[in-house]
What we know:
Radius of gyration of chain A: 23 Å
Shape of chain A: elongated
Structural class of chain A: alpha/beta
Oligomer: homodimer
Distance between the termini of chain A: 65 Å
Strand order of the largest sheet of chain A: 5-2-1-9-21-20
Helix content of chain A: 25-40%
Number of strands of chain A: 27
Largest interface: A-B, 60 and 60 residues
Amino acid sequence: MRVDPTPSAAAVPHVVIVGGGFAGLAAARQLRRAxxxxxxxxxxxxxLFQPLLYQVATAALNPGDIAYPIRSVLRSQQNxxxxxxxxxxxxLRQRQVQLxxxxxxxxxxxxATGATHSYFGQDGWEAWxxxxxxxxxxxxxxxxxxxxxxxxxxxxxxxxxxxxxxxVVVGAGPTGVELAGAxxxxxxxxxxxxxxxxxxxxxxxxxVEGADRVLxxxxxxxxxxxxQQLRRLGVEVRTGAKxxxxxxxGVWLGDEHIAARTVLWAAGVAASPLGASxxxxxxxxxxxxxxxxxxxxxxxxxxxxxxxMHFEQQGLAVPGVAPAALQAGRAAARNIAARVAGAAxxxxxxxxxxxxxxxxxxxxxxxxxxxxxxxxxxxxxxxIVHIAYLIGFRNRIAVMMGWAWQYFAFARGARLITGRAxxxxxxxxxxxxxxxxxxxxxxxxxxx
Amino acid sequence: MRVDPTPSAAAVPHVVIVGGGFAGLAAARQLRRAxxxxxxxxxxxxxLFQPLLYQVATAALNPGDIAYPIRSVLRSQQNxxxxxxxxxxxxLRQRQVQLxxxxxxxxxxxxATGATHSYFGQDGWEAWxxxxxxxxxxxxxxxxxxxxxxxxxxxxxxxxxxxxxxxVVVGAGPTGVELAGAxxxxxxxxxxxxxxxxxxxxxxxxxVEGADRVLxxxxxxxxxxxxQQLRRLGVEVRTGAKxxxxxxxGVWLGDEHIAARTVLWAAGVAASPLGASxxxxxxxxxxxxxxxxxxxxxxxxxxxxxxxMHFEQQGLAVPGVAPAALQAGRAAARNIAARVAGAAxxxxxxxxxxxxxxxxxxxxxxxxxxxxxxxxxxxxxxxIVHIAYLIGFRNRIAVMMGWAWQYFAFARGARLITGRAxxxxxxxxxxxxxxxxxxxxxxxxxxx
Lengths: 448, 448
């Protein structure tokens, strides 16, 4: 009873898209009227709105608010079908995509498998400092954060309390800044009302960045403003600081030890290994260096878009952000359609729509063109832009409700620990390294 | 910096409540003005609205919609604190509750640790037929159900397709009836629009019940009506059928084999093992046979409420439903307050508020007092009662929105597979037992 979507399937070129993120979905939709049959393969059944993932991690949103079944997005697109499957390899010569249990021939291929976090070769750090790329990552971070407060509530040894209530975020790009700001808000506004046994002023959020300022790709003025806003929220900002070790006891910056139960990773990024498996030139992060039309050198029927692509424009690599992925996905799709029609491909041109990073309640920084803005207005812009991009009417409503609730009530509605409460692998009475004595801290980080 | 909630803590009797379900939370709230200090211990940080858990399993609701942090429920109750911890034992003589890392003395104890599912000693069945008691259970069931449709979409062997699309629900109590009805609706309304490769009419939902009718505790007329509504939804109802084996290939009813990739368990219930550990008489399911005032025989300062309690009234055991747990929790709390005040305890009296089971969109059966009702009206009553009981304003709104959306759009908004797509432990080409040939089925179960 297997029904083939198009009766004349063999006559129509087969476009395989691997990855249902921003680039892959945008490409599939762009090809909706092209004379092709599309198979979109993803190992997850949902598209994830990654820019809001940190809100799931910090218990402001439900997973279902920012994820949407890929199958439903493409429901009405007759020339596309969706396959849940893991691609294990690509044979460029035979024009085949290998799945765990199937070999899928293609006429055109778009690889859009994105990136994950990287620990700069220190893979042992991952256990102590989870990154944030998937729904499961977000729920794991949420579990650790909420479990830390639960552990503090039960902590009977006052000497252990500072480490229990210290949160270190490594990396001050947009995700790190958003996480640090949200953690500080959770601790000071929400948790302070719910817990009895510990003094919420002991809460410490440390944001560590190797560069000399937060949000390094942003304009210097915006970085300064963001740092100021973070400090106002009580975040300790440590720029020019290199993490040399992470373990159960916390984080080392050279000789300095920050005793912390909870460490979150928002630093390195590595491209999906499928890129390197193609045997074509990649950059240090494993991104494929594409041709101007986004095709793979020597393989004009194979295209790359999104975080897996390394594309330089005016000497700068296009950043790994959602608008770039959307634009590249559409451009690659247009070039596939051109090739199908026997026309010439056109070079990709990235249009910078601007940058936005939110820091906390009514706090953000942004830049659109030459206009820089900060504070409440930037936060409003950030809010509207993100809502507008969220796929699906229902998700939009649910997210708006969650945010409105959070804004007015300072509450976080999704504070569930699922799975077991996380316990770091150390005995509370005998930490691997004794917590450092709390240095006297300047008073401003903990303004109430 | 440990701050004790009440300065004169030692002078005030300490009430320990184990379990933050309906009974435990109701008891804590009932004691809000009593001269006691309360510690509520739960191994989860959230109260779960179990009557709606099947809606999370069937992707209609998000986990956050039906769960709420216990800590927040008790936030403003000055005499109560909440502890996230696992109780490993109870020493009735020393009046101590043992946690994994702490011994907690009590003056009064309320055990309300509830029940979980039981496989009648066939623990090996659990891997093939998950039950539904926790958020994780619900997400696991959701994962299996949605993964089955994904597998069907990719199934290349037509002979395997019927087993891939067969869902067996074991047990036709309210949970089983709700699951079977929802599965049938998902398959026929939502999934049919999203998938391309298989004929949705191959979908088969089988509801197996050992008793001679569905919803055995309900009036016979309501059981008949429920069965009729289930059949109208396309569910195959198999009453008087005993499951003799469950494995990777499906379910056996004696000699009859139902080939099914997905089997869900909604049959047996076993009380929390803490009941049996007390060394006092229990019933077959491990529930503690309590005194009329809900105390444990020989231990007038120890009380039991909720699904862990075996309480007979007019020769019938009080059922394991939420209203009974709420009533018993409050009654136990009143008796604890009476004992603190030096007054006599009073016997518990269960007031049957009626029964309600929903079967699908605008389909339900119910009974309040002597009034029985079915169909759309019963569904409305069910809807209103469940909303009214849901704790927390935000949850109420989110659930109503989810349902309204589902009702009008026949869509299910929370269709995420988290974790990996579930793969049963069998090679698709070599099932442990070959699927039985599909018997010709009567046409009415698959009306569109």
